[in-house]
């Protein structure tokens, strides 16, 4: 290790542990840097398995001295968010439920949907699990209260009203159409509605629906009826609790992979929503109390802090955390472990929900019967240890080595997961070398998965023959991984393995479910690679020195670049070579060379 522990000061601060590549792999805080960091290098008997692995990878340590332990806590959370170290607990938000934000601190407040809660003095309602219903509700608020939606600076009488004013969705305070006091009265009516007092709005909507029905405007009446249902849907999400306090309820459960946390939001005595979170990189052999403390520090770094937070366990460093929460919120904050009563029941309900989230994470979408048959055959034919539920397929696309693109497609339970597809622009390989390109793409993909501590596939499929398979396998071996890897050659649809000798090729009948699945993955990787290459090639054709030459339009530019690959090769060609191309006359060829060679 390139660090002398004797240089550590006995002061509060943050330490950053780095590996031999210079990457930050762990960030921690300490009341005394000297005492805390030395604890990592004591007898292995006193360390958890995760800490032993961490210490083995430490090559250097940096530290930042702070004025206090609270400053160190804040800095630690910021650095974890910045570097995302491999061995730190990292907060993953499984779902970003929407909130309704009311900019109550502005002269003419707006009401709109947002996915982030900030400490900015605004009012927040939610989160809401039914995004469609809350969008409809905001549309109703716009119709009924006619509040502004635009972001323009309000200077009454100095600007023209937007379209919302003309379609009767806004009273146009920008043109002086409403006094500030009347505008705020409407805002507070909307706020009361968002707090759960829906009776007034529902009454107005029902009266309007009856009026439209009596006028035989049944289509408009049906629209208002749907609006009423949306308002009722939102009000049903609010579970009544006793009292009028605001609080967050935090419960956690864990399995051998991660820690799952459920947060219930209680606002004005009603439970208005919940959210699921996962702590990645957590050492489940350590206490769940420590993980919950890490969650609180990361979560409330940029989220509003309620007056009370209910937790299952007493948190380590509770006094320090509470002091930090009070400083951030500007008022007293209680972190409480309820022992009985309604708060205890609410915490138990949150724990049940956390357990359900964990089970849902453990249960992947069940593959179809045909997919199971194909996967079972693959497992048998390839002698795999388990079903290849997660397969990644690779292909390369380029024209004479230019604009080369590598594609990665992701199949889960025999089905494509399009949101996990990845495109890699070739960076290190020059010229025509498909083998080296394949090696680069595979190395970049799995070095990234290792660095980000993500799960590896059960099987890798390469579009190509022995050369591509060998190149890809060299990257897998260089990374020290043990992942089954095969290729699928297009001509005879033979499976190419990494074994030597007579078992190097596996031939399956064309009716084989396993072969059909491999062909599907291979064809999807090829399709994605070609479409990615086309996009990149089109982008490269968009801007070029050729654009400034009179007589050279998009079609001629494409012909030139597809035949000569680059501007440099065009510049070094002859008039005869250019004139031989379709659409290029001898005079135009002279003009092109004259422009490029001047």
UniProtKB/TrEMBL annotation:
It holds the Pfam family UVR. Residues 249-476 form the UvrC family homology region profile domain. Its main location: cytoplasm. InterPro entries: GIY-YIG_endonuc, GIY-YIG_endonuc_sf, GIY-YIG_UvrC_Cho, Hlx-hairpin-Hlx_DNA-bd_motif, RuvA_2-like, UVR_dom, UVR_dom_sf, UvrABC_protein_C. GO terms for biological process: nucleotide-excision repair; SOS response. GO terms for molecular function: DNA binding; excinuclease ABC activity. Residues 10-89 form the GIY-YIG domain. Keywords: Cytoplasm, DNA damage, DNA excision, DNA repair, Excision nuclease, SOS response. SUPFAM superfamilies: C-terminal UvrC-binding domain of UvrB, GIY-YIG endonuclease, RuvA domain 2-like. Residues 199-234 form the UVR domain. It is found in: Cytoplasm. Belongs to the UvrC family. Interacts with UvrB in an incision complex. The UvrABC repair system catalyzes the recognition and processing of DNA lesions. UvrC both incises the 5' and 3' sides of the lesion. The N-terminal half is responsible for the 3' incision and the C-terminal half is responsible for the 5' incision. This is UvrABC system protein C.
């Amino acid at each position: 290790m390139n660090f002398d522990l004797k240089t550590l000061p006995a002061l509060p601060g943050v330490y950053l542990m780095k590996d031999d590549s210079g990457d930050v792999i762990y960030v921690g805080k300490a009341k005394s840097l000297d005492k805390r960091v030395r604890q990592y290098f004591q007898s292995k008997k006193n360390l958890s398995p995760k800490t032993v692995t961490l210490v083995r990878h430490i090559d250097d340590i940096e530290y930042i001295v702070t004025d206090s332990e609270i400053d160190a806590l804040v800095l630690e959370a910021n650095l974890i968010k910045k570097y995302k170290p491999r061995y730190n607990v990292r907060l993953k938000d499984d779902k970003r439920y929407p909130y309704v934000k009311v900019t109550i601190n502005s002269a003419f407040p707006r009401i709109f949907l947002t996915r982030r809660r900030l400490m900015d003095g605004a009012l927040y309602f939610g989160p809401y699990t039914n995004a469609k219903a809350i969008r409809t509700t905001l549309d109703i608020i716009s119709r009924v209260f006619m509040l502004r939606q635009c972001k323009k600076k309000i200077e009454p009488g100095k600007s023209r009203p937007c379209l919302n004013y003309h379609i009767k969705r806004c009273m146009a305070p920008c043109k002086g159409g409403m006094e500030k006091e009347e505008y705020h009265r409407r805002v507070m009516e909307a706020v009361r509605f968002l707090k759960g007092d829906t009776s007034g709005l529902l009454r107005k909507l029902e009266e309007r629906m009856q009026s439209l029905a009596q006028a035989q405007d049944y289509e408009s009446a049906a629209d208002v009826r749907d609006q009423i249902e949306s308002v009722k849907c939102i009000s049903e999400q609010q579970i009544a609790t006793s009292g009028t306090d605001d609080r967050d309820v935090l419960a956690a459960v864990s399995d051998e992979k991660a820690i799952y946390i459920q947060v219930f939001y209680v606002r004005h005595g009603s439970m208005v929503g919940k959210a699921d979170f996962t702590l990645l990189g957590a050492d489940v052999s350590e206490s769940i109390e420590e993980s919950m403390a890490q969650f609180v520090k990361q979560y409330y770094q940029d989220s509003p802090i309620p007056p009370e937070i209910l937790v299952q366990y007493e948190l380590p460093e509770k006094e320090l955390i509470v002091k930090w929460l009070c400083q951030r919120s500007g008022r007293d904050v209680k972190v409480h472990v309820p022992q009985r009563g309604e708060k205890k029941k609410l915490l138990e309900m949150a724990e049940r929900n956390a357990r359900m989230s964990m089970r849902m994470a453990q249960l992947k979408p069940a593959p179809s019967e045909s997919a199971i048959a194909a996967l079972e055959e693959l497992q048998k034919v390839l002698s795999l240890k388990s079903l290849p539920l997660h397969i990644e397929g690779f292909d390369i696309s380029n024209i004479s080595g230019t604009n080369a693109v590598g594609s990665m497609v992701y199949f889960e339970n025999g089905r494509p997961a399009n949101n996990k597809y990845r495109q890699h622009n070739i960076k290190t390989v020059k010229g025509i070398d498909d083998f080296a390109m394949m090696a680069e793409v595979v190395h970049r993909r799995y070095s990234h998965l290792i660095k980000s501590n993500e799960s590896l596939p059960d099987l890798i499929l390469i579009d190509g023959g022995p050369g591509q398979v060998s190149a890809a396998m060299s990257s897998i071996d260089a990374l020290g991984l043990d992942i089954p890897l095969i290729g699928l050659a297009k001509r005879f649809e033979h499976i190419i393995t990494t074994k030597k000798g007579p078992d190097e090729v596996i031939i399956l009948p064309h009716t084989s479910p396993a072969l059909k699945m491999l062909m599907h993955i291979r064809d999807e990787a090829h399709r994605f690679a070609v479409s990615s290459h086309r996009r990149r090639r089109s982008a490269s054709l968009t801007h070029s020195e050729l654009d400034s030459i009179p007589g050279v339009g998009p079609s001629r530019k494409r012909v030139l670049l597809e035949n000569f690959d680059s501007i440099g090769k065009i510049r070094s060609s002859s008039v005869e070579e250019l004139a031989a191309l379709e659409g290029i006359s001898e005079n135009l060829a002279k003009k092109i060379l004259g422009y490029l060679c001047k």
